[in-house]
Amino acid sequence: MAAELIDGKIVSEKVRAAAGAAVAKLPGKPCLAVILVGEDPASQIYVKSKGEKTEAAGMRSITRRLPATATQAEVETEIKALVADPEVDGILLQLPLPKGLNEAQALALIDPMKDVDGLTELSAGRLILGKPGLRPCTPTGCVIMAKHALGDDLSGKHVVVIGRSILVGKPTSMLFLAENCTVTMAHSKTADLAALCRTADILVPAVGRPEMVRGSWVKPGATVIDVGINRIPAPEKGEGKTRVVGDAHFAECREVAAYITPVPGGVGLMTVACLLRNTVLAACARRGWAVPKELGA
After folding, report:
1. Cα(4)–Cα(17) distance, rounded to whole angstroms?
2. CA distance 224 to 28
3. What superfamily in CATH does domain 28-111 come from?
4. Minimal CA–CA distance to 221: which of 170, 260, 257, 181?
5. In terms of CB atoms within 10 Å, which end of the chain has fewer, N or C?
6. Residue 3 and residue 224: Cα distance in Å, rounded?
């Protein structure tokens, strides 16, 4: 029997709706500011979508656009201005930045209280120490999707995260650990990776290698949360055409797993939804507002 889909559209809409309901109960409107440097087409689309969904949730949206020729100093000046602006609750620096700009140096300037992407060193430190703070959006989305399939109590589940990146692998591991899961972080040097994956109740591929995880790697009845987004040739669509696949071989894994996220239509949709949730949480923390129960925080 094929695995049940964990539909990213359904789950992300639920998270966005909860954020909107929470905003309606607040004494003011949270504000999200996004900085876009350059003309990258994908980034343009992402930023437009973030702005539209922010406003749809009842919040204020600000977009600061800088040309691809912007200097490091100009980017940093923009960040500092938003950090100093009392009306701005969340700051997101759209990545990647144009070549020649130092992303780490720019991100370090973001006030952790406004770090809605959870990327600053202090945010990472708070995550590791289990202290309150804003958590990275994609990893948060992974946990929410797992709970959507398996229920709110993930205690005792064995989670295998494939990938040790700072953006996804490491924070995802920490968030599942906070849910009382037993977590194994695997990577390119892991011995007998396939055998390790077969021990996972929840398998989270996050390595950027198309269809690496085969059906034989999946424990029968497991949950697969596929973070990968990869473009591969699709000659069946015509010359030069491509299609998007995950890090898991969807057709094979679906025959073995109990639950699986599709790609596209899975984890990717959760990132913006969790960004909205983080903006509300940031506003409440900064302004001393009680967190509405809709957020479940």
Report:
1. 23
2. 39
3. Leucine Dehydrogenase, chain A, domain 1 (3.40.50.10860)
4. 257
5. N
6. 9
**What is the per-residue pLDDT across 182-236, written as a single tens digit (0 to 9) for each?**
999 999 899 999 999 999 999 999 999 999 999 999 999 999 999 999 999 988 8
Compute the distance between CA of residue 292 and CA of residue 177 in angstroms, rounded to an integer: 25
Name the region of 208 (left: φ>0; alpha: ψ -120 to 50; beta: rest).
left
Q: 107 is written with which tokens?
A: 């991100």
**pLDDT (tens digit per residue) in 199-212:** 999 999 999 999 99
Exposure string of 259-282, with b = 16+ CB inside 10 Å and e = fewer, is bbbbbebbbbbbbbbbbbbbbbbb
Three-class secondary structure of residue 91 per DSSP: strand
**Cβ atoms < 10 Å from Cβ of 73:** 8
268 vs 227: CA distance, rounded Å: 7
Query: Whole-angstrom Cα distance, residue 185 to residue 1?
Result: 29
Residue 57 CA to its chain's centroid (Å) = 18
Residues 41, 42, 45: CA angle, nearest 5 degrees: 90
Architecture of domain 137-269: 3-Layer(aba) Sandwich (3.40)
